[in-house]
Every structure is written in structure tokens, then in C-alpha cells.
Amino acid sequence: MAADDFIANKWTQLAGLKNGPVSAESYRSPAFYQLERERVFGRSWLIMGRVEEIAKPHSFMVKEIEICEASVLITRDGEGRVQAFHNVCSHRHNLLVSEPQGCSQLIRCPYHGWAYGTDGELRGVPDEKCFVGLDRKTAGLAKIATEVWNGWIFINLERKPSVSLEDFLGDFGSFLANMEYPNADNPIVVEAQLDCNWKVVADAFSESYHIPVIHPETIGTTFASTSNRTGRLMDARFFGPHRFCSMYGNPDYRPHDHQKVEQLAYSQVQTGSTIAAGKVGSMDAFLAHPSVNPTRTKSWSMDVNFVFPNFNLDTGPGGFWTHHFWPTSYHTTRHEVRFYVPKALTVRERFQQEHYLSRVIEVLVEDVSNVARVQRGLESGAKDAMFLQDNEALLRHSVHHVEKWAKSATVQEAMSE
Fold first, then answer.
1. Range of 90's domain?
2. What is the CATH number for 102?
3. What value does the mean pLDDT take over residues 308-330?
């Protein structure tokens, strides 16, 4: 598929959506934010991270879901099972764990010393004889529905999930099934608190129309070219509330003569991209997956796999990276990005990685530096709708499904065709 093959509203029609203005209300309404809390984040299967984050027996990690006022403790018990619990002591509801990660057979409450195993069972109570009728079997940690899929840890905050993870992912699960995840045990984490609605920053990483304007000196000539000046999409697909797109990459890009550091970083290594931290040979199994660059075009830079409601799984020639968009209020967001890189074994590999990280973080800064301006414009009330073009079809799809989930009384209704 050529990037300059123009068919009006091709991606919008593929998404099953109508053209026309898109309401801005879900980006600026406190009342709608409450609906998102209850009906979107409170009922969806949410990705918490990867199993490599809790690789050892009795290891644990804590994840915050601010929109639901939930603190989630995810553990691997002594038998290797991955489970999630509310990070709350059964005694007086004190938060149990404050550090983001750890490893211990006992998790002890810092208030009164109640102790729990990584299986959630209550193991110790100081002065237990004074607790008349205490049943340890029912006084363990409060469980959260947990599933592991392709190494990704999902939870659902409903006490009894309305839909299974398999049904929630639907055909998107088949699309991504059995993908390789190189270097999944070695992430570089970048986190920022942003003054915008979570969908504003999610939108910024779901379209390439902005790239020539926001990123002219960084990736403006790698994600666009004279034959595709606005970075038109190479592919887009839609799976219920989830979505996918392939972005254009300039196959003729070469560093300019004045870009000496970039030339040096990639002078003796083949990566398939100047935004990569790994060698092509080490990525063969990953790149062979049918859903990585599925059109098999040479004019490819990356794929965006958006798992509803708030997770980007991005794939490119050098591997994968992720975005989490966590709402903290109707107009603030915690944005977490993880870049997965190989452990450098030589000075040259480390130099290449440092160049890669400095480049992608510079691009991130360019993106997030604009989101507060967007939010101010939204909250001004100057306009009630956005005018989206066809290559912004993922944004239109996002608003449609977030609104649908927020307005639906049941998950089944939200997921209906």
C-alpha cells in the first residue's frame, strides 16, 4: 500500500464511523470523568505491567490507579502464581506497601504489624488472642481478578468481572497473540505528570499528522518525506474498542553531514531505524510476527497497538515500547513510558543506546510540551467539537468507544456492535 494512495475517509469508514465533527466534552467535563471512573476504568481489563517485573518467587510490585483511588499489590507467590490484591491491610485498612517493588515472603503492615504471604493469606497477627472470632481464612488480602496474557498482567477492578479477558480482547488478542517481546526484563522508565486530560496525551501518540510541525528537527524527516509530507498512515485496523495503525517511515532517510553523533552511533551496526536500541539480527523473531508491520512495506517506522482504555504497545524495527496514560483528574494525567533495551555488552552498544534514548526522550518532550496548550484550548469553551481528518481515525475511534462505555449501563452493552 502506497502512502500517497488517497481514498477519502478510508480509515474512518474501516472503523465503521461517520465523518463529521467530534464532541470535545469528554476531554473537559468533570461529570464525564466520574463516568469514566465508574464505567470505563472501573469495568475494563487494565494492563498493569509485565511478568518480568516480578520474576522471582515472593517478589511484588505496587501500581496506582488514581482514577479509581486504588492501590494494587501484584505478587508472585512461592509457587510462581501471579496474583493481584488491594494494597490494603484487613485490620484498619492502612496501605501495606509504599515501595514500588520488592521481594519478601512476608508483607508486614507498618501500622500494627499484621503480616501476609505473597499468596494474600493472613500469616501473623500481634496479640491475636485479643481478637475474638477472628477468622484468618477470611481476613486475608482482598483479591483482584487477575489474568496473565502473553506475559502482560491484566486486572479487573469489578469484584466479578462482567466479561472475561479473552472476550474483552476479542480478535485483537488473536492479532497480537504469540508476539515476541525482546529485552522485556530491561526497561528504561520515563514518567511525567501532565496538565491535560488523559485522552489529550493518548491522542498525541495515536496519529502522525502532527509530526512535520511538532518534530521538524528530530523525526520530521524520518516519519515524513517529500512523497508523504504529512505522514499519512500505512495501515489501520479496528477491533471492538481496541485499535491499530502502521505509521510511515522514510526509507531514504540518512543523517545529514552535520549530524556527526548520529552518524557515529549507527556507523557499524544495522538497526533498520535510527530510532532503535537493538541490532536487526536480534530482532528477527520479533519482526517476523505477522502483526508487526503487517503490510510488509519498506516505508514503515512503527506500529501503534492501542489496548482499550489507556495502553499503547508500540512496535518498531528495534523492538517494542509502551505508554500508559493514567488519569489523575479530569484535566491531569500521569504518563508512563517504558523503553525496552538490550543489556549493553560493549562501549559501542552503550553509546548507541544513549543516542537512542536521548533522541526518543527529546521527541517525547516535544510531544508533551504541547498538551497543556491543547487542554487550555479545550477548557476555554471556544469550540464544542474537533474537526478530525482521516489519518486521525484512531482519535475518532477512541472518543466513540470511551463515550459508548461511559453511557452504557452494562459491559455487554458497551461491547455490542
1. 44-161
2. 2.102.10.10
3. 96
CA distance 19 to 70: 38
- Cell numbers at 247, concatenated: 505509521
State the total domains in the chain. 2
Indicate whether 312 and 409 sit together in one domain.
Answer: yes
Task: Tell whether 48 and 111 lie within a shared domain.
Answer: yes
| Cell matching residue 172 | 485483537
Q: What is the pTM of this model?
A: 0.92
197-242 tens-digit pLDDT: 999 999 999 999 998 899 988 887 778 888 888 889 999 999 999 9
